[in-house]
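ugh ok fine here u go
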Amino acid sequence: MSFVVGLDAGGTSTRALVLDLDGTRLGAGVAGGANPNSLPPAVAATHVRQALTAALDGLNPARVEAGVLGMAGSSKVLSDPAVGELFEAAWSGAGLRCPLRVVTDCEAAFASGSDTPDGTVLVAGTGSIAARIEDHALVSTSGGHGWLLGDEGSAFWLGREAVRATLLALERDEVDDLAAAVLRRAEVPDGPPRERWRRLITAANAGPPIDLAGYAPLVTAHAHVPSANRVIDEAVRLLVDLAGSTRERADTTPVVVMGSLVHAPALGSRLKRQLAARTGAPVRTATEGAAGAAWLAAVRLLGEAAPRPA
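structure:
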C-alpha cells in the first residue's frame, strides 16, 4: 500500500495528515507552529518533524510516495538554503524518502475547498490576501502587505477600526454598545470622556500593533450597532474588492475563502453572499489545509482523478 502525506503549517500549529491513494485517512498529527518567519527556523522545522512522526505512528514512512508541505512563510524555506536544509532534515528525520514539496498555505487552502485547478483563494484572518491559482499553483497575489502597509478588511483592520470608532464616540460623548465593549476590553475605567480617550490611546499603543486584532470579535458581536455595522460593511467591501482584483470580469472559476473572519457572525455570511453576487462564481469554504496538501500530493501521482480525502 502506498501513502501520501500533507501538512498545514501556520504560525501557531502544524497539522499532518496521511492518506492512502483511495483518499482514506490513515493517520494525523499535530504540533506547534512552523512558520519560519515568526519562529526560529530550527524550532519550526522541529514542529514539522513532530507532526509527521505523530501522523505516521504505526505506518511505514517508506511507503509515502509523495508529500506536500503547505505553509505560511514558504518563501523563506524556498529561498534560504540554510532554512531549507532544516526542513529537509525534519522531513527525512521522520523517515520519509520522497521529495519534500513546499507550497504556500493559499495553495493548500484552495485545494481543500475545490478540486478544480484554477480559481481564487481569499484569506480573511488576522491579515488579508487574495491569490490567483492556476493549475493548482499560485501565480499572483493581491494584498498581503501586513498590518503597516495593508491587510484591509482583516481582523487587524477590524480591530483598529473598532478602536477608532470608540475614540470618535468619546470625542462626541456618544458611547454606544460597541464603544463600551472596546473600553471594557482595554480596561479603561469610567470617567470624563477626554480622560477615557487618552487612556484608550495609551492602551491601544501599549502592546504590539497586531494585538489590535483582539478587538475584532467585538465588532461582529455588536453587528446590530450602527457603528459596528458600518465597519463590517466596509470590511466586506474591501475583501470582495481584494478577491475581485485577482480575476477577469468573465471568470467563473471558484472562490475559496478561509480565515477566522469567514466564520465570524454577520461578517462571514455577508462576505460569501457578496462574493457570489460580484463574481457569479461558486464560493466555497476551505476546510483542512493538511487535507488539501495531501490531495495535491496525490494529484502528483494520480493526476486530476486523485480521490478527494474521505
